[in-house]
Design a protein that fits this description.
The protein is α+β, with helices and mostly antiparallel strands. It has three helices and eleven strands.
């Protein structure tokens, strides 16, 4: 199984757990820092750490959707990964546009296997995004649903650096 497939599976696990608390997984909140909360989850020798934040402002032409969030996930022995969930399935083949502090533009990509999450193209892109998030104050995420509606969510990056440090320490 290649790295991308592992991360897709891990991302779907994180998304599912964040939407429905699964009693099979032992989840522990490690802490919170301003706009971010961070957790450690374990099952059968697998350990994941993740940080999550929710939008402080939501706009778009959608009628209804689930709860959007921005997350960073770190599995033991693997690099950290950024993902975005808009609260709906993304339009097939669409790109989610992130804008950090109204200037740095980044694309996240969707996959048909998990249509409700968008990720960076590769590990190098994740590292660049993490660097921008550490320095930034806020990020806007704009995505398009499978119905053709759009959403634009603004997230605070206050507390991201502490979240990143905590999950990296707990899942080295």
């Amino acid at each position: 199984m290649n790295y991308k497939n592992i991360m897709i599976k891990l991302g779907s696990i994180i998304a599912f757990i964040s939407l429905v608390a699964m009693p099979v997984w032992a989840q522990t909140q490690l802490g919170n820092s301003k706009a971010w909360k961070y957790y450690k989850i374990e099952k059968d020798g697998t350990t994941l750490c993740y940080g999550v934040t929710y939008p402080v402002k939501k706009t778009g032409n959608y009628k209804r959707r689930g709860k959007p969030y921005l997350s960073i996930t770190k599995a033991k022995g693997k690099p950290a990964e950024i993902s975005h969930h808009a609260g709906y399935d993304y339009q097939k083949g669409s790109v989610v546009k992130l804008v950090v502090d109204k200037e740095d533009k980044i694309n996240l990509y969707t996959t048909p296997e998990i249509p409700f999450l968008a990720w960076a193209f590769d590990t190098k892109a994740d590292q660049s995004i993490i660097k921008l998030f550490k320095l930034g104050a806020g990020v806007t995420a704009r995505g398009t649903s499978k119905l053709g509606t759009y959403s634009q969510d603004y997230y605070s990056l206050q507390g991201f650096s502490k979240t990143f440090k905590a999950i990296t320490k707990s899942c080295p």
